[in-house]
């Protein structure tokens, strides 16, 4: 699914192509034609569009437009990274295959010399905002999109290169960005981040999450997820990630939820309810239910759903859930929930 390489015809297994979909495609085309007429008016009123708000036809147009990657590679700190998806950089950047990012302020440029000149002037050595966590070489910075608008926008442009399904929010004012860095004597190097709405009616505690490709599969993703729940615990709220989740997002969340819940169930003696699990972990009850259901740990007995946790079964599931990822040391988190300043 990722647009991270060109493949040769020999690499495709054409025998596995299914032909039975024809009828459905026909149906879709007909309904697309109909909605195309109807949607014009809607289009004019939707300036900022999230995929949820698009009808089938506009979604297809959007997909057509963003199908082809515009930027092939980026340079960021000591890495050259191949991108995965289209990102709506301002039009003047669209003729460049490669963009050069300042790894600290995330300003981007078309030529290496411009970046070199910028690096001589740029005095940032870490993301703007407050350092709210430091443990060993790992630091987390909280960046308010309202106070650091350009940084927030740059981060969204960068992130979209690796996120397929997310709409880019220009309105970064409404978000806080949690930027995870590995620090050394040259500065704090961004590893990944997550964004969070300042106020979420749907109890989302995370909007977008990204680990930059050179740092993936090292446990940073699970660290970011765990961190988002630690913030929710401090707020005294339950949270859930914004939907839809990507394939990698779902894998990471499922792994996290499984490990956290089964660890508790293993240690716990006696009965425990989903509500209690939710209070302990800040994981939303629905996510607990779907996780336990997918592990077949929920049974229906005497008209009630009950959690059945045989220790051997738990061990098997825990083993399958993979490594735990990097731990969040809560004693190193210095943070108070966001409050609007008058
Ligand atoms: N193939 C198979 N499984 C994978 C892969 C992969 N390429 N990447 C992650 N996983 C699974 C594994 O189970 C892994 O655990 P394991 O290594 O112990 O087996 C687990 O997910 C998470 O591994 P981490 O190392 O903790 O996570 P990582 O730092 O790689 O970050 C993330 C995960 C953030 C989802 C990353 O893949 C990413 O940035 N992807 C691109 C952007 C994206 O899709 N973000 C989520 C969108 S949904 C949303 O934003 C709400
Ligand atoms: Zn800079």
TrEMBL record:
Subcellular location per the Swiss-Prot or TrEMBL entry: Nucleus
UniProt-listed SUPFAM superfamilies: Acyl-CoA N-acyltransferases (Nat), Chromo domain-like
UniProt keyword terms in alphabetical order: Acetylation, Chromatin regulator, Metal-binding, Nucleus, Transferase, Zinc, Zinc-finger
Gene Ontology CC: one annotated term: chromatin
Catalytic reactions on record: L-lysyl-[protein] + acetyl-CoA = N(6)-acetyl-L-lysyl-[protein] + CoA + H(+)
Single Gene Ontology MF annotation: transcription coregulator activity
Keyword Glycosyltransferase attached: no
Pfam family, one: zf-MYST
Chief location of this protein within or outside the cell: nucleus
Coiled coil among keywords: no
Enzyme Commission numbers on file: 2.3.1.48
Alphabetical list of CDD domains matching this protein: NAT_SF (cd04301)
Location of the MYST-type HAT domain: 66-337
InterPro entries: Acyl_CoA_acyltransferase (IPR016181), Chromo-like_dom_sf (IPR016197), HAT_MYST-type (IPR002717), MYST_HAT (IPR050603), WH-like_DNA-bd_sf (IPR036388), Zf-MYST (IPR040706)
Biological-process GO terms, alphabetical: regulation of transcription by RNA polymerase II
Family per record: Belongs to the MYST (SAS/MOZ) family.
Name of the protein this chain belongs to: Histone acetyltransferase
